[in-house]
Request: fold
Amino acid sequence: MKPKERMAIPRQKAKELAVANRITNFDEVTSGFDEETAIKEANRCLQCKKPVCRDGCPIHNNIPKFIELLREKKFEEAYWTIRETSSLPAVCSRVCPHEFQCEGSCIRGKKGDPVAIGMLERYLVDWMVDHNKDISRECALPNNKKVAFVGSGPASMTAAFHLAHDGYTCTIFESLPAFGGMLTVGIPAYRLPRDIINAEFDALKSCGVEVINNKTIGKDKTLEDLKNEGFEAVFIGIGAHASRKLGVEGEDLDGVLHGVDYLRRVNLGEDMDLGPNVVVVGGGNVAIDCARTALRMGSDKVFILYRRTIEEMPAAAAEIHHLEEEGVKIEFLAAPVKIHGENGKLTKIECIRMELGECDASGRCRPVPVEGSNFMIEADAIIPAISQDVEHIADKGTTFDLTRWNTFDVDEVTLQTSVPWVFAGGDAVLGPQTAAKAVYQGKVAAESIRRYLEGEDLRAGREPKEEEETE
Ligand SMILES: Cc1cc2nc3c(=O)[nH]c(=O)nc-3n(C[C@H](O)[C@H](O)[C@H](O)COP(=O)(O)OP(=O)(O)OC[C@H]3O[C@@H](n4cnc5c(N)ncnc54)[C@H](O)[C@@H]3O)c2cc1C
Reply:
């Protein structure tokens, strides 16, 4: 096919559940491509000599190669090309914010729509499932060296996967009754079906990774206990699970539920009826997930308060589109200043209008309250979902150097903490970020732990990867 013909193909669209069929359940909203659509979309790829899409992917998947194999209908080979770099393609293909990563860098996006890289990856993952293909990999013989992992999110799962395949005995300690971290207790099932996570994680565990649930390191066991039990290295992948507070009066009233706490309870099976009127505060994916979850849990009037405008919203465009389709309104340039209640229960939220003030170097402008513009909203519940912080291991025996964002201060190349036998990665290091970044750091940490246990130089031949830390 000539480049001109490729350029003429429009971006293919995935089918979606009709609004009426999705807002009362947690069924997956977006369907995958069929074969014909996937090949048509793959034909849009220009196979650039300098594939900038690869630079945009936090895991550096070989995107042009898997797309080329896909369009030759070598689906299994294409899948394994992705698995060379990614441990969690089923998860990443569904939830990565592609528009800010691989698709955001795709050259076709400069004049029109980028190639739908995420949907093509998803096609291959789903093809392997539909054809009952084994996605586990060969395991090395056990070497009797033990490594412990704290938390069972994508960072730990990836690190454990690589080390277990190299013959290390890997045990993951998880404080919750479910494994998967924010993939399971944060992201709702209508975006990431649980059978998808389970199948992918089963493959990661296939070399004997053991997950022990309901064990909080720092409380049920200390890091020193792990050392005494023969674990020679530890990886900390505890994520960022402490909801950031609004810091306004009335935040302790009944009816105030913070974003990730609310989602965790719903995802662990609690029947959370918040009443008909729910207000969510925030502009990121977590806020949108809270609003769409509240709708599915039975609230009829859900809206979002965001202190900036739609241009500054950090959430993915597709998520904002789905939210609005489902009838959730966003009140822009408004923020809560006080939560009012009666008999310990929330009744009204006092808000103030905002306007955008000075902008920083990146062009992001500071919201400034408009004096005297206060107004009231009646509500049954408010869900502040403005960000998350790391909830550190309450282990008095071992202390770590931390950054000014209260994340683990690690060596940028090796992810080694200030305690030499302990490594850390994912949101615990980066602040709330993405699944793909956690996967990447899990892989980096696995290589460091392997070198540490084999007495090799941790840094030799490795370059730091530029990562932005978030507040
Ligand atoms: C609502 C929501 C939506 C999101 N949407 C997206 C999205 O669309 N796309 C995307 O790429 N990313 C998304 N993310 C972010 C993504 O889920 C995280 O970046 C990623 O899961 C971080 O992985 P992690 O392994 O570092 O930590 P986590 O996934 O947070 O896992 C940490 C685990 O450690 C456990 N733990 C904590 N402390 C202890 C302890 N002391 N002992 C034992 N266990 C402990 C926790 O219970 C948890 O299971 C979302 C996050 C949330 C909250």
Q: What stands out?
A: The first strand starts at residue 146 and ends at 150.
